[in-house]
Amino acid sequence: MTSRETAVPGPDTAFEEEVTRGVSILRGDPKTAIRKLSGPMIIAMLLMAVYNLADAVWVAGLGADALAGVGFIAPLFMILIGLSNGLGAGVSSVVARRIGARDKTGADSAANHALVLAFGVSAVLMTILVLFLRPIVVMLGAGPVTDLAVEYGSVVFMGTIFFLAVHMTYAILRAEGDTKRTMYAMAASSILNLILDPILIYWAGLGVAGAAWATVISIASVLVVLGYWFFVKRDTYVSLSLRAFSPDTRTFRAILGVGLPASLEYLLMSIVVIIINVILVSIAGTDAVAIYTSGWRIVLFAVVPLIGIATSVVSVAGAAYGAREYEKIRVVHRYATTIGVIIALATSALTFLLAPQITALFTYSPESAHLIPGFILFFQTMCLFYPFAPLGMFSSSVFQGTGRGLTSLVITILRNLVFIAVFAYLLGIVFGLGEPGVYFGIVAGNILGGSVGYIWARAFIRRLIRTQGAGKPVPGKTG
What we know:
Elements: E1 4-5, H1 13-17, E2 19-20, H2 21-26, H3 30-60, H4 64-100, H5 104-131, H6 133-139, H7 146-158, H8 160-175, H9 179-203, H10 208-233, H11 249-284, H12 286-302, H13 304-322, H14 326-353, H15 355-359, H16 372-382, H17 389-401, H18 405-430, H19 434-469
Antiparallel strand pairs: 1-2
Helix pairs in contact: 3-9, 3-12, 3-13, 4-5, 4-7, 4-8, 4-11, 4-12, 4-13, 5-8, 6-7, 7-10, 8-10, 9-10, 11-12, 11-18, 12-16, 13-14, 13-17, 14-17, 14-19, 16-19, 17-18, 17-19, 18-19
């Protein structure tokens, strides 16, 4: 994980001295890089998905109202995590591109700028979410479960700084190819959360607030471990030092050029969740929201392997772009998509066949047993879009890795607002198909959005290779 090797000579003397094993993998064979970097990320994200799922399972024991209350916080929490992941994508892209260009000094600078961004953004976001949580939840239509939603959300959003700081450090480790250490940190956070959930929810009698406290404590604890690696042990490739931080507008722009569009992508996903919640409330009440928001955790669990691969695609494509090895980007895109479709076909079949058993996770209490038919319908419909998810997901990762965050954002806008939201409204309300119509609208939107993204990425990569072959300057910036 931290073994050192002599680097190939390059323009940055700091880079020439030594590189970590992760950096060597990152800059080597792209297929090998995808396999070796994706594996640890998939394991880590599966564990995170387990604890995300565990929250819903433990809260389900408190009844349908508790599930719905947590469900109304879901889109707001998605904004927080989305901003963390989005800015993290910007950091990974810039750091990986500078590593690919053999610019270690620039990679260090980008990482330090990332921490400063984390502190600044978290202060603003936490203030807004904590002070205005109740009116926001009321506006979202929580109604009779407003108090439960506020009880859960007020605790979660007090930990905003921890979420952003942790995701920034994860992004730095991914960018230098050190996904094993990322896996260890994420796994530790997940296991701690799994242990704390039942203790705080039931034994301590904190209810939904206990689930929130378990999440905050687990993420804050792992930040201590990450801090030890970067500031005490100091055996990472990228060096962090806030004392050495020197503000650079170009670096901020490079990070935000990918990070802000990526964050807006998650914001759009949150907006779509809100829209779907509103549609479902109008059709079938808060029980439908409980099914959708809780069931979506299973959807996220099913696509976790794809998310793990996607994070690796950002880093590998970014390093290849920084090194101006554009054929590697085509290999990365094709190889990742092939693996992703195979995995998605398997998870789709399993979800469809095991829908009744999965449903039991959320309906084991008498208070939530009446939700069984709705959950089964949801799972057996949603799994239909899984095989198309890699097409759009990995294409967006290629655009993010090469510094074209706006293109990735446009694809997300098409998928979420033009396709998913519109189709869900038309099929659910206009054509009167109710809940099944909403679910089929989500499936259709994901399929169309993924297809558009894939076609767009293929055209972009062909253009990169053509311009390089013709000896023309390649449009864009290396960050």
